[in-house]
């Protein structure tokens, strides 16, 4: 049986799983040697796009049989820029492999270690680049909160946290803000958190939003980040410094039942975006395309 070839730039968890599937085969990049020998460039049956829409991406969009992007915003951009038909572009949201975590037990143990009341709520902010992800706006939001029974966790690598310490030294947070350097089990932090806030300036889909939702955490993210496509209107920030965010967080901190409902809804959405679910949906998509095209689109693959 002829395998379906696919091309990609970044080895995401989904791509790593696809590499284990015998029905698919990665297409090797067009090497310099091939260019020098004037060998015709090969294009994959399925092209997975990540990152910027550069010339190489545009070339693949035009010549690959099916192109996969990770948001509807990117799909619209590709259709406009590459001038390809909409039915050639499919949206498959990013996915991840979740860990088995007892959320209630982990939260109880975590609060006990910090000697905090069991009703204390945890507000989380984490990113590889704190500045670009909106740490300044996050701090401003925290300063606007009227609630008192909460703690804030900001987690990143040592350099990022060191820089942050100088920036927030002027604020008297006392023990309200906990800074974590190189925390090994980030999934655990998402699991014990109640609210995850990401006032990011970046557009690329924030997988941390997906993780937080899976581990039953309420989230807030800027509208122009592509991960906003999987959250509801309440969780969307018009701008990184959206003044309504503090009001919304205060509302959730004071209404435990509302917070529980949102957590359950987020988990329900995110359960459909694990790598396993993604593979199932991708296989269904491929079969549908083959069926509708009479297999001709993939060169007679059966």
Quick recap of the structure?
Helix content is 40%, strand content 15%. It is of the alpha/beta class and 302 residues long.
Put simply, the count of helices is: 12
Spans where pLDDT lies below 50 across 5 or more residues: none
Radius of gyration: 22 Å
* Main sheet: strand order: 8-7-6-9-10-11
Which H/E pattern describes the elements? EHEHEHEHEHEHEHEHEHEEHHH
Mean pLDDT: 90
Structural class: alpha/beta
Distance between the termini: 7 Å
Percentage beta strand: 15-25%
Report the biggest beta sheet as strand number plus sense, adding barrel if it closes: 6 strands, parallel
Total count of strands: 11
How would you sum up the global shape? elongated
Helix content range: 40-55%
Description:
- This protein is an alpha/beta fold and 302 residues long.
- It has helices spanning 13-18, 32-36, 55-63, 72-82, 103-113, 135-143, 158-168, 186-192, 207-214, 244-254, 256-271, 275-292; strands spanning 4-7, 24-26, 46-48, 66-69, 89-91, 121-126, 150-156, 177-181, 195-198, 218-222, 236-237.
- Helix 7 links the parallel strand 7 and strand 8.
- The longest helix is centred in the C-terminal third of the chain and has 18 residues, at 275-292.
- The radius of gyration is 22 Å and the shape is elongated.
- It starts with a strand and ends in a 10-residue tail after the last helix.
